[in-house]
Structure prediction request, 269 residues.
Amino acid sequence: MKRIASHTPWSGRVRDFITELRGAATFAPRSRPRYCADACLYRLLRVFPSSASDRVRTIDLRDGTRLSYRRNRGDIQAIREVWLAPTYHPPFATNGLEVLVDLGANIGFTTVYFARRHGAKTCVAVEPDAANARLLRRNLDQNGIRAIVLEAAIGPEDGSGSFTASDESNLGHLNADGDGVPVSIVSMPTVFARLNGRRIDMLKIDIEGGEGDLFAGDTNWLEGVDAIMMELHSAVTAVAPIVSRIESHGLRHIPGNSIRLGATDAFVR
Prediction:
């Protein structure tokens, strides 16, 4: 699969920057200067990508949440998307949210978000990139979140595949050409097996277009899912068949653009 890059209009970039600066109040006072500096660095890295670094930085939110990330556009962008304009804030009640499964968990921000802000107690994080998975575990540990981490990609069947990483940590994806790093692939039935038959209260999906293959296979596992928050990548996969397949299992579609600007699509029973 070839990933098609998306380009945010200038108006969107200005909006995002304002969101970031206003969001500085979300962080503990000692973390605000570092966060604001990295919000600026995010723009600089577009022009000078060689300035990126794997060195880990850590900032604290006012509620005590601790976030570790790298000087990488993908990591810095995730701070804004998850914690400031929360892209994954469900447009429905999450009372009693017990089980979270995070597909494309990246460095763990969404897993931490659902655990800290929505009370998820049993978490499964699926992430194929080894470097991301190391930071994912760190973010879970330093926030006291016990989770099952599956260092693998999600797919319609168990097996193996080829993963192409990106300079931006959140843009890696499976490819069919075999020109990448070998990774394990796990299916949703395998994920359910790790939950000992429990239902999934919240399924978060951001797998860079891989949702096309995931929902083209057997989807009977959707009968055990009560809600989904998913980023749909219309540039690389057809969205309508995915929505139709999910709806056929009794989940109602709530388009992201009907919730708020920048929100992910949601599905709920």
The chain has two domains: 9-85, 88-268. Confidence is low (pLDDT under 50) at residues 1-6. The CA atoms of residues 162 and 179 lie 7 Å apart. Residues 9-85 form one domain.
